[in-house]
Every structure is written in structure tokens, then in C-alpha cells.
Design brief:
Blueprint: H1 2-10, H2 12-50, E1 62-67, H3 71-74, H4 76-90, E2 94-99, H5 105-112, E3 118-123, H6 125-136, H7 141-144, E4 149-153, H8 161-164, H9 171-184, E5 187-196, E6 203-205, E7 208-212, H10 213-219, H11 231-239, E8 248-255, E9 258-259, H12 274-286, E10 302-314, E11 326-327, E12 329-335, H13 340-352, E13 362-366, E14 368-372, E15 380-383, E16 386-389, E17 393-405, H14 408-419
Parallel strand pairs: 1-2, 1-3, 3-4
Antiparallel strand pairs: 5-6, 5-17, 7-10, 7-15, 8-10, 8-14, 9-11, 10-12, 12-13, 14-17, 15-16
């Protein structure tokens, strides 16, 4: 024993390095063990759904999964197969996995998709944006938009996960919770933005459209990876070397919020008896013709000339309120009188929460707007964190257009917050 202690004392550097290495290895193995326990518990819960008896004449529910293997720097496929796929197969669903090979493929595949009971998106914000755009571009979108959608967060940015699932620092737990939420069947209606250019087909988004200097600087953060935790501030700092102040000129026309109609019942009312239908037809035939309905009042458009450092148009999905009586999107026009120090500071904040609307900004609630850009305007829009060429666009809110699966705890939390 004394000889061993003497050896450790004489080679204390190697001993310290070995102890650190051993400690790290033990911590890594313990983490792997905890992840396996989470996977096992989730699979056992999913198996309870798969063991449920169904009538012999009832077909299995068909689930179509759109998986983006390139998400999360190429790790999405492995994350899906280890954490989500076993749960889906044990649940008794007829699962079809469609893997996308290139950007934009999901939009084309949605045009050819046959009937399915569930649509599951496995990826990040870009995958969600592609799938819903392909879905709502279909000629029969009125039917297909009623199909419930599940979201398995596998990408670098997963904005919807903050609304649909509880926060979790463990990636395995976050993915398994999201997959189990699909099996539990609780859904919430989400708004959609329809963004249409002059010639292009419309693009759809569930989060926001951003245009401005903060977004442009945020895209370049990864170029300064070698600066570690300072890369975000560096990207915004070097952005100030351009023309300053950075102003974006545009004209904005918008219509205010619209009153929310009552929600349609999920079950259709039974067809009335034949004699009731005949009586209604005869009464309609013999009744005096009604006066021509009054002309629909024209929409009250308001126009605004703006000069801003950044403009954002966002849905209410991040702060979901199922009981509100009006439907609108939030337009945030940030003041262009910002110092370079404020720009760097706010830019770092917006990397964590892009929907932050700082003091001094002009906030507008609208159901529809038209953004006119001056000729020769360069730059790009960020639509659900996907880059599109900046151009004049019309943005229209489609309230409660799609239903997404959510964790039952989050739905209760949303309803509880609305009651308070």
C-alpha cells in the first residue's frame, strides 16, 4: 500500500490526469445508463397502447413520418432510430418513414402523399416549414389540413417544442416525451402565416417572418466558432462595421385583428329525417325572396412608412391562448436609433429569444398585411429560421389552421393560464 502511494506521489501529474479521465468516463457511462432507463420506460408505456384490443374490422392507424436525416448536423437519423422509432412501432401504428435527401424534397413528397391518419415531422424548424408548406399547397388542403400533426424535435432549432412539450435538458427525455405525446392524442390548434410574393407560390410558417440586421448577423454566428462563447457578440460587433446606422426602409399596409368565430364541433350532427328536409325545402320555396344582402364593408387598411433596424411578423403560437376572442399576428417594428453597444447586447438576447420586442418598438396587431420594399432591396427574410430572398410580400394569418399533438401537461398549463 505504501509503495502504491509513493508511486502516485512521485507521478502526481499522471495520477491527476488518470483520475480526471476515470471520473469523466464514469460520468459518461452513468449518463448512458440513465438514457437507457428513459428509453425502456418510454417503450413500456408505448407497449400499453399497442396491447389495446381493437375490432377485427378496424384497420390500424397509419402514420407517415417525414424524417430529415441532415438535421442536428447529421445526427437526426440516429436520434430518431434510437429514441423515437421503437416507441412508434410498439404503439401499434402502421408507420411509414419517408427520409428526405435534399432541401425542398418534403414539399414535393407532400403533393404525392396518399391518405394517412397522422403526419409526424422528425427534424427542426426547417423540416416543419417544408412539410406544412407542401401540405397547404395541395389542391385538397381543406381535407388534409385536418390531419393531426406530430412533431419530434431533432433539429438545431425547434421553436415549436417550447409550446408543445415541457422543457427538458436531457435530449433523450425530450424526444421520448414528444413521441409519447403523439400516442396520447391531445392536440392544440396553431395559427399559420401564409406568405405570398408577387410570382412565387405561397410559403407557410408557424412561427415568424424576420427581416433586418439582427437576423442577418445571427446567420453569421457560426463563422466565428473559434471564438467560443464570444462568437455571438463577435458576429454582431463585426456587423456594425457596415454602413451605420443600419436602416431598412419599407411601406406597410395592414388590417386589424378579426373576431374569432366559434369553434366547429368535432362531430357532425346527424342528418334530419326525410319529412323534416321536405318541409324545409317547401318552406324555402314558398317563402318570399329575401332582400339582397348588404354589401360587404371594405377592409379598413392602414398604411405606414417605416424605417427600422428589424421587422418581425409572428404568430401567437409561442404564447398560446385557447380562449382569446380575436385572431391576430404581432408585428414588431424596432426603432433604428440604436447605438452599436445596444445592437451587440440586444443581438445576443435575440439569439436566445428571437421574438423579443424591446422598449421603444412599435407593436401592431394585424390579421393581414402587405410589405412593400423599395426597388433594389437586398438581403433575406428569415421564415421559420429558413432563408428566403427579400421581396414584396403579402402575409395573411390563417387562424387555428393546423392541429399539433402536445403533451397533456402543456395543454392543462395553457388552459389554466387562460382561466387566470
Amino acid at each position: 500500500m505504501a509503495r502504491a502511494l509513493a508511486t502516485l506521489r512521485n507521478h502526481w501529474k499522471k495520477s491527476a490526469f488518470g483520475a480526471c479521465l476515470l471520473g469523466w468516463g464514469g460520468h459518461w457511462l452513468y449518463g448512458r445508463h440513465c438514457d437507457n432507463l428513459l428509453r425502456r420506460a418510454a417503450c413500456q408505456e408505448a407497449q400499453a397502447f399497442g396491447n389495446q384490443l381493437i375490432p377485427a374490422t378496424m384497420p390500424l392507424k397509419k402514420a407517415t413520418v417525414f424524417l430529415n436525416p441532415a438535421a442536428c448536423k447529421g445526427k437526426a437519423r440516429n436520434l430518431f432510430e434510437k429514441n423515437a422509432a421503437p416507441i412508434l412501432h410498439l404503439s401499434g401504428l402502421d408507420v411509414t418513414v419517408v427520409k428526405t435527401d435534399y432541401e425542398g424534397q418534403a414539399k414535393k413528397l407532400l403533393e404525392l402523399m396518399e391518405n394517412t391518419d397522422l403526419i409526424i415531422i422528425a427534424g427542426g424548424d426547417g423540416t416543419v416549414q417544408e412539410v406544412i408548406t407542401g401540405l397547404l399547397r395541395r389542391a385538397d388542403e381543406a381535407v388534409f389540413s385536418k390531419i393531426p400533426i406530430g412533431f419530434i424535435p431533432l433539429g438545431k432549432t425547434c421553436t415549436l417544442s417550447h409550446t408543445l412539450y415541457p422543457e427538458s435538458t436531457n435530449q433523450v427525455q425530450h424526444i421520448t416525451n414528444a413521441t409519447l405525446a403523439i400516442l396520447k392524442g391531445e392536440t392544440v390548434p396553431l395559427d399559420v402565416l401564409q406568405i405570398k410574393g408577387e410570382k412565387e407560390q405561397p410559403v407557410f410558417a408557424v412561427s415568424s417572418l424576420r427581416w433586418g440586421s439582427y437576423r442577418d448577423a445571427g446567420v453569421k454566428v457560426s463563422k466565428y466558432w473559434y471564438l467560443g462563447p464570444l462568437k455571438t457578440k463577435a458576429a454582431h460587433f463585426f456587423s456594425t462595421f457596415k454602413e451605420w446606422p443600419q436602416k431598412h426602409q419599407a411601406a406597410l399596409m395592414y388590417v386589424g385583428p378579426t373576431e374569432r368565430p366559434p369553434e366547429e364541433p368535432e362531430e357532425k350532427q346527424s342528418r334530419p329525417p326525410l319529412y323534416v328536409r321536405l318541409y324545409r325545402r317547401l318552406r324555402l320555396y314558398w317563402s318570399s325572396p329575401k332582400e339582397a344582402s348588404q354589401a360587404v364593408t371594405p377592409e379598413d387598411w392602414e398604411e405606414l412608412k417605416l424605417s427600422t433596424i428589424e421587422l418581425s411578423i409572428a404568430t401567437q403560437n409561442r404564447q398560446l391562448d385557447l380562449t382569446r376572442t380575436e385572431d391576430f399576428m404581432d408585428i414588431c417594428i424596432e426603432a433604428d436609433t440604436v447605438s452599436k453597444g445596444q445592437f451587440v447586447h440586444r443581438g445576443s438576447q435575440k439569439m436566445h429569444d428571437p421574438h423579443t420586442c424591446p422598449e421603444g418598438s412599435q407593436c401592431i396587431q394585424a390579421s393581414r398585411c402587405i410589405l412593400q420594399l423599395p426597388e433594389g432591396t437586398e438581403g433575406s427574410f428569415g421564415i421559420d429560421n429558413e432563408e428566403y430572398e427579400a421581396m414584396p410580400v403579402e402575409v395573411k394569418l390563417l387562424p387555428r389552421k393546423l392541429r399539433f399533438f402536445c403533451d397533456p401537461r402543456m395543454r392543462e398549463q395553457i388552459l389554466h393560464a387562460a382561466v387566470q
